[in-house]
Design brief:
Elements lengths: L4 H4 L8 E2 L7 H19 L15 E5 L6 H13 L17 E8 L8 H12 L7 H14 L5 H7 L2 H4 L6 H15 L10 H13 L6 H4 L4 H6 L4 H6 L1 H9 L7 E8 L11 H12 L4 E6 L23 H4 L15 E3 L5 H11 E2 L9 H11 L3 H16 L13 H8 L4 H10 L7 H8 L5 H6 L5 E3 L7 E3 L1 H9 L10 H21 L5 H17 L8 H11 L20 H14 L5 H14 L4 H17 L3 H14 L4 H14 L3 H8 L8 H11 L3 H17 L3 H18 L1 H15 L5 H14 L6 H15 L5 H14 L3 H14 L7 H9 L17 H23 L2
Parallel strand pairs: 2-5, 2-6, 3-4, 4-5
Antiparallel strand pairs: 1-7, 8-9
Helix pairs in contact: 5-8, 5-13, 16-17, 17-18, 19-23, 20-21, 21-24, 24-25, 25-26, 25-27, 27-28, 28-29, 29-30, 30-31, 31-32, 32-33, 33-34, 33-35, 34-35, 35-36, 35-37, 36-37, 37-38, 37-39, 38-39, 39-40, 39-41, 40-41, 41-42
């Protein structure tokens, strides 16, 4: 364990032991040095045999980490350090290599580089061309492959066109070396004339000579697998096995000319997927068949080659083949075994962070100086960033030096993170970085717009930095490392080009406008974009007290119009009396109350919206939103007259929610039993007023279940046409409820569809409608009573008491089917009690209709659309039809 001098001079207590950690990629470089040194020593040993196909392979080092953490940079730095020692970063220690020379070659496997397997093999051979010597065994196989797969295309032309001539200085020598190999073999076989167009004849004759063990080809006879490879079909599979021939050729070089290729394969995650491993299999074959070469692979994922479960997908798998890849604890060694060959680049896992902090500072006796709770708090705040851990250790010593005991609250944002993050950025890159710290995620165009720049170059360069994370599945692909973002936003900025409060306010204004542009004119304009811009725009408007809400007004109306109710950030005030100071505060509280009402009692929703209304902070256009939804919540908790007045106020204002408010008035007329008025109003609502749903609500009460189901279907189709997922789910649940009274088998299918439409949506009332429909479908079954009691309790807990009478009607239907007059009487009594304020009083009529009982004296009858007698007949017929269906099912 190396002594950490910074820690040594950071405290008077010389007994405190400390060790350097994973910063500046020093550990990764040291891992390369150790692994390569071990490899060189092993290859130089007398027991090493390049043709041994059973020996375990320890000639690979895997550096893995998340995207954008700097793995490609690390790969390039390693290549430069191995090529020219003067290019080695100053913090990287100089290795003491053995006398063997190294031959580095870096190959970028990213799809954008256009590298295929053939180019991989050519790149390795071109690097070896620097030796100025032919590789006869491999060159024969390569020339045969080339002539078969590239007829009429000279290798020189391919190298020139593919850019390989410019990359490899000795590329021009390769065709000559191939020709020399062929000429030497032709001479040994005493073949007449030129051999340029007779490669097939040459290889056939050579194979025969090898099989017959002729003395003339004794130089190649030592390669025991040469004849088999030359006889095989010259395709990519054979070319991959030809890597063994190149390894054999290199092993035959005289000791003074012997070299060790170091092949760096970058962007390994792009060679395929965990299910498609064709390219990976070919690359693994090269690694295994060239045990005298050393491979440094960088990619996002650990190599799985030591996994026994991959047998059949790859040629060599398991711990026996790849012992160094089996154990993957960074910096560890297996007991008595080889060094671990998988290292983590960049962020550390929570376990690694804790281990780092535990080992970094040790008390006398070897115990960790930091307590476990403190290590856990620092680990959580570091988000795996090694630099944060370093700074936390320094702060720990600083606090301890002052005589105090470090506490978790002492470790927040570090100003040093800002200076270190910005140290090698250009002025424009710094500007973009600070600007995007205001956003949860960003794209290059969005970052450029937020920064107020006219070109993307700075944003493009910034996305290549290791503190920028990339998630290709995200709405915007890039985001700042959480610790870096928090430091830039919250820690004191002492850099020379730091921003003032006005700078931050101007940037927030630009960001707010850029988000609005993204929603209105971006490449996508769907629900995901809406939620993404709302979450960020609301926080910016609130935190920076922006004067104008701007596009947030339209976005807020679109959000509520879809009736999906995803949670929005930032969270609203959690106190019972939130402090509202700006229009943004009021809008955040409004939208939060509407989203939370799916999980809060509706009385709490009324309270929160009343606070917003009384504040008077919302502009007139938005003020109708809390008014309308408070009216809905008042209806849900049974305050029907207050609800009707709220609807009336919004309808008379003539704003965006006027049609919805008129729908509320139609529903109020329906609740009061004035069905003709509700019908007349429904016919004026149109799609925006959800006319089909209002009609469906009217028809099923009249006992016209099929007609109601048709209206709900029309409503669902209209909702789908307008991409309103919440409204579509709501109509579908109600359609299932209507059909459950008359066709339980069809209701099964409709409930399944309702469940599909509700998946991913947070619509509590709609979910309850589907649950009630399920009860109606099961009318006559033994467990309906118990399920109804549970559902009744859930409705009370949610504050959706307005739905309880509908649940009681469903229960009454079940009891009527069973002809259980005693239970039905108790249910009717509950209905009368629940509807004593006049709302839903017609449910008492329906319950009596089901068993053809006379209405109680003094009961106020509703205004049925086509008379009481016809309605009574229809409800009674539904009960008898269900009873007949049950009897038929029970008959033998």
């Amino acid at each position: 364990m190396a002594r950490d001098l910074r820690m040594l001079f950071g405290a008077n207590d010389g007994s405190v032991a400390s060790a350097e950690a994973f910063t500046n990629r020093e550990a990764q470089w040291q891992a390369v040095v150790v692994a390569l040194t071990d490899h060189l020593q092993r290859v130089a040993g007398t027991l090493f045999d390049v043709e041994d196909m059973a020996a375990p392979r320890n000639n690979v080092l895997m550096a893995h980490g998340v995207g954008g953490i700097g793995k490609s940079t690390l790969s390039r730095k390693i290549e430069a350090s191995l090529t020219q020692p003067g290019e080695r970063p100053p913090q990287w220690a100089a290795p003491r290599w053995p006398v063997e020379r190294l031959l580095p070659v870096r190959i970028d496997l990213a799809r954008s580089s256009g590298v295929d397997f053939e180019r991989v093999m050519l790149s390795i051979r071109l690097a070896v061309a620097a030796l100025g010597r032919p590789m006869p065994a491999f060159d024969l196989a390569l020339r045969r492959h080339w002539d078969r797969n590239h007829p009429g295309e000279p290798l020189e032309e391919y190298l020139r066109r593919g850019g390989l001539l410019s990359r490899f200085s000795n590329a021009v020598d390769l065709p000559g070396q191939l020709q020399s190999s062929l000429g030497d073999v032709a001479q040994a076989l005493a073949l007449p004339g030129t051999i340029g167009g007779a490669v097939g004849q040459l290889t056939t004759t050579l194979v025969s000579a090898l099989r017959e063990r002729r003395q003339t080809v004794r130089a190649l006879a030592g390669c025991t697998r040469l004849a088999d490879i030359l006889e095989a079909e010259p395709d990519l599979e054979t070319l991959s096995y030809a890597a063994h021939l190149l390894a054999w050729d290199l092993a035959q070089l005289p000791a003074p000319h012997r070299i060790t290729p170091v092949v760096l394969l970058d962007s390994f995650e792009e060679v395929g997927s965990r299910t498609v491993r064709d390219f990976e299999r070919l690359l693994q074959r090269i690694v295994y068949l060239m045990p005298n070469a050393f491979f440094v692979i960088t990619g996002r994922d650990r190599l799985q080659w030591a996994d026994e479960g991959l047998q059949g997908q790859l040629d060599w798998t398991g711990r026996a083949a790849w012992p160094g890849l089996a154990a993957h604890v960074p910096g560890a060694r297996t007991r008595g075994g080889p060094a671990v060959r998988q290292i983590l680049v960049g962020d550390l896992s929570p376990d690694d962070c804790d281990d780092h902090l535990a080992r970094r500072l040790r008390a006398p006796g070897g115990q960790p100086l930091m307590e476990p709770d403190l290590r856990r708090a620092i680990t959580d705040r570091s988000h795996g960033l090694p630099l944060y851990l370093d700074l936390a250790v320094m702060r720990f010593l600083e606090i301890r030096r002052s005589g105090q005991v470090p506490q978790p609250a002492d470790f927040g944002d570090f100003p040093a993170l800002i200076s270190r993050t910005l140290s090698d950025l250009t002025t424009d890159e710094r500007h973009v970085l600070r600007s995007v710290s205001l956003l949860d995620a960003f794209s290059v165009p969005l970052a450029t717009r937020v920064a107020g720049l006219t070109h993307d170059a700075a944003a493009l360069r910034l996305t290549e930095r290791p503190f920028i994370r990339e998630d290709l599945t995200g709405l915007w692909p890039f985001h700042l490392h959480q610790v870096v973002r928090s430091a830039i936003r919250n820690a004191p900025d002492r850099t020379d080009d730091r921003w003032s409060e006005q700078d931050w306010h101007r940037a927030a204004t630009r960001a707010h406008m850029a988000l609005g542009h993204e929603w209105a004119h971006g490449p996508r304009r769907d629900r995901a974009v809406l939620i993404g811009v709302l979450r960020q725009g609301l926080r910016l408007a609130r935190d920076f007290r922006l004067d104008e809400l701007g596009w947030l007004t339209d976005a807020a109306f679109t959000y509520v119009g879809d009736s999906v109710w995803e949670p929005l950030a930032p969270p609203a005030h959690t106190t019972d009396s939130p402090v509202l100071a700006t229009a943004a505060d009021a809008l955040v509280e409004t939208l939060s109350a509407l989203a939370r009402r799916q999980r809060e009692h509706r009385a709490r929703t009324v309270q929160r919206l009343t606070t917003v209304i009384d504040s008077g902070l919302l502009p007139p256009e938005l003020q109708e939103m809390p008014l309308y939804y408070r009216a809905k919540a008042l209806r849900d908790i049974g305050h029907n007259e207050d609800s009707r007045r709220g609807y009336q106020q919004v309808a008379e204002a003539g704003g965006r929610l006027a049609r919805a408010a008129r729908r509320g008035l139609a529903q109020a007329a329906r609740l009061a039993g004035d069905f003709p008025t509700a019908l007349a109003t429904a016919r004026t609502l149109g799609w925006e007023g959800r006319h089909q749903r209002v009609l469906g609500d009217l028809y099923w009460i009249q006992g016209e279940a099929q007609r109601a189901a048709a209206a709900y279907l029309a409503g669902r189709l209209e909702a789908e046409q307008h991409a309103k997922a919440g409204e579509a789910a709501h109509n579908q649940a109600l359609r299932a409820l209507a059909l459950a009274f008359v066709d339980p088998h069809r209701a099964d299918e409709e409930l399944d569809l309702a469940a599909q439409l509700l998946a991913g949506l947070d619509l509590r009332a709609t979910t309850f409608n589907a649950a009630i429909a399920s009860l109606v479908r099961e009318a006559g079954s033994p467990d309906v009573e118990d399920r109804a009691r549970t559902l009744r309790a859930d409705l009370d807990g949610a504050g959706l008491t307005s739905m309880t009478p509908t649940l009681e009607v469903a229960l009454a239907f079940h009891q009527a089917v069973l002809d259980n007059h005693r239970a039905l009487a108790a249910t009717i009594a509950r209905i009368r009690q629940q509807t004593s304020n006049g709302a839903f009083a017609y449910y008492t009529d329906i319950a009596h209709f089901m068993v053809d009982l006379p209405l109680p004296d003094g009961h106020t009858r509703p205004r049925w659309l086509d008379g009481e007698t016809a309605t009574r007949t229809r409800w009674r017929a539904m009960v008898t039809a269900r009873r007949d269906l049950l009897h038929a099912a029970q008959s033998p």
